[in-house]
Amino acid sequence: MATLEIKDLHVSVVSEDAPKEILKGVDLTIKAGETHAIMGPNGSGKSTLSYAIAGHPKYTITSGTVTLDGEDVLEMSVDERARAGLFLAMQYPVEVPGVSMSNFLRTAATAVRGEAPNLRHWVKEVKGAMADLDIDPAFAERSVNEGFSGGEKKRHEILQLGLLQPKIAILDETDSGLDVDALRVVSEGVNRYKASGEVGVMLITHYTRILKYIQPDFVHVFANGRIVESGGRELADVLESEGYVKYTGSKEAAALS
Amino acid sequence: MAALSTKPHSHGAVVPVSSRAEHFTSYDVNAFEVPGGREEIWRFTPLKRLAGLHSGAAATGTAAVEVSAAEGVTVETVGRDDSRLGTAGVPGDRVAAQAYSSFENATIVTLPGDVKSEPTTVTVTGAGVDAVAYGHIQIKASQFAEGTVILDFRGSGAYADNVEFLVADGAHLTVITIHDWADDAVHVSQHHVKLGRDATIKHTVVTLGGDVVRVTPVVQYAGRGGDAELFGLYFADAGQHQEHRPFIDHAQAKCRSNVVYKGALQGDGAHTVWIGDVLIRAAAEGTETFELNRNLILTDGARADSVPNLEIETGEIEGAGHASATGRFDDEQLFYLQARGIPEDQARRLVVRGFFQELIAKIAVPEVRERLEAAIEAELEAVGT
């Protein structure tokens, strides 16, 4: 039973002059089998939380802990975290010219699984996973994310999620910029991953619409660098009708300064 | 056909050449001043490291030329008085003229017309440590010939040469030049490409080894419909100077050129220079040209100079453009790959290999392609992380 435990996490970003604190004490525990939706206004620090857990060099952890099954995640390099079972589906997947998607997927799967996948099974596995996400097989020979539309990039993030089978997946605004069909396809991909085993999901989103497809067990409201309210599914319905005003109000300006 | 310059040589002061059209050329080394380093065409080159190639160093040895010729391809070793030599172009700087004035024997490789030939390899081995040598090679593709020639430079010493590529009407020549010199080697080379009507050349320069390597490929068109693709791939380590100065001289109508050079640099004092000149003369209506240079700087202390020059003397062209970019290693790419479990050193190799992939994919000879991939891997191993 995988458990991701975040305790009193403080994170700063180094800007031009002084470091700026973005996360101001985040506490969150995600267990296998659970889906946590993190919802909040722009600039509240949702994406910072995801990048900090994945280990992006731009962010500095000033205090707090992150553990995966008791192991100190913050001590691990970016790739060690991924091999330990963490996955971040990025809001803005990066283009890597000259590296084909198929080469990239095979290299990543080899690293995460600890051995090169059997070629015949692998080809079949990738083909099937691509078909499930309505991805044209021709994409396998294209450079990683290069020239992909926003929706195509998101489908490929979920493709990687399905192939790498992490213990805990963090989905950073995977729904943003998707049209109705793409949102459905991507959500089905996430649900297939959830159904595939004992896995935990942190679903970061600005809107409630993806929650119609992916059922959260917990909903957390994120504002000004911390979780300000937690509840069940019904909290999302409240946010749907009332928005984030209650949590930001006059504080919004302060949070962005 | 060679456009012998009639411009009088101005002795004395350094006068920057404003137009590439007025660039001085001569077969005679004495027609050139000894460069002092401030001249436009020499200002990036470390003259002190040229072993006197620019200042009259006499030959003290001979570079060995071995040709592994494909069936039907003829190879001749000729004296310097052979009237066929020098027809593809005229030396454009003092070192090229020195080489032209100093070589003893030349090698002429001729691809037969109207047939497709297997690849031919010309291996040139330097005269040895501290030796100076001059050479001359001419590659001829006869009418409607189709084939590949690999020029493989290795060994030690200082070496200057002219390499001529005469591509007859309707011929298709692929050339891959590999500079895989030993660490001490100095090589200053001018390539003269002359394309006949509807002739094409795919000209790839690979520079990996040597202390100083300076290559000046010049393309001239003798008829319409000519098509030149110039590709370059270089990898400079600490202390290496690699300079590439392609010049496309569009003087005929309806011709095309495409120049893509990519380089990676790592280590203290690694220096690359790319000067890309394209001249579209008034007669060259319907020209289509593009040139691109990209440099990837992998570590601190390396320096890439990149200067694209485009001169257009007629408005009646299909298109002309240039682009140049020099950048640091992209940390976001590294993060993305690592976030998928790929260890950092492997991720770096993927990104650099990806950077060169576009050019490597264009090399149609599998053995050469594999050799380059291995060489790039070896370069990356050397730096560590």
UniProtKB/TrEMBL annotation, chain A:
GO molecular function: ATP binding; ATP hydrolysis activity
Similarity field: Belongs to the ABC transporter superfamily. Ycf16 family.
PANTHER family registered for this protein in UniProt: ABC TRANSPORTER I FAMILY MEMBER 6, CHLOROPLASTIC
Keyword entries, A-Z: ATP-binding, Nucleotide-binding
SMART domains assigned: AAA
A Pfam family assignment: ABC_tran
Protein name listed in UniProt: Iron-regulated ABC transporter ATPase subunit SufC
Entries under InterPro entries matching the protein: AAA+_ATPase, ABC_transporter-like_ATP-bd, FeS-cluster_ATPase_SufC, P-loop_NTPase
Domain ABC transporter: 4-249
Keyword Aminoacyl-tRNA synthetase: no
CDD domains, alphabetized: ABC_FeS_Assembly
UniProtKB/TrEMBL annotation, chain B:
Any single Pfam family the record assigns to this protein: SUFBD_core
InterPro entries: Fe-S_cluster_assembly_SufBD, SUF_FeS_clus_asmbl_SufBD_core, SUF_FeS_clus_asmbl_SufBD_sf, SUF_FeS_clus_asmbl_SufD
Leader peptide range in chain numbering: none
Protein family membership: Belongs to the iron-sulfur cluster assembly SufBD family.
SUF system FeS cluster assembly SufBD core domain mapped to chain residues: 130-355
GO biological process entries: iron-sulfur cluster assembly
Species whose genome carries this gene: Lentzea waywayandensis
Superkingdom of the organism of origin: Bacteria
Protein name: Iron-regulated ABC transporter permease protein SufD
